[in-house]
Prior knowledge:
Blueprint: E1 2-13, E2 16-33, E3 36-53, E4 56-69, H1 72-84, H2 92-116
Antiparallel strand pairs: 1-2, 2-3, 3-4
Amino acid sequence: MVVIEYLGKTERDGEITYNYIYRLIKNDICLSKEQDGIVVQAYGIEIERQDMLEGKIQSIERDCVEVVSPHRHKVHSLLRLLYENTVSPLHLVEVVGEYVDEYVNDFDSVFADIAME
Length: 117
């Protein structure tokens, strides 16, 4: 997993500061039908929230969906949506689940394009 880009924001609630970090990540995955295997790039999202009190980390929450789509622009748009709405790592899978289900077809089209070469 390689971090391609990240967005960060800070929010305060009383004495607690929440640092949110949204990461666009890249992985190589192997697509295969029967015995033919093709390695393609896949993009995913990781969210981390650090809960700070008096400048010290009290807790860290982190979650990741390593494979969302082979199309960086789609995952980047989804990352911006999560960032703009300050989605917690606790809700990452719940929020991106429908997108992942929709984007799974992207891998079929990439596999078909590569297989035709």
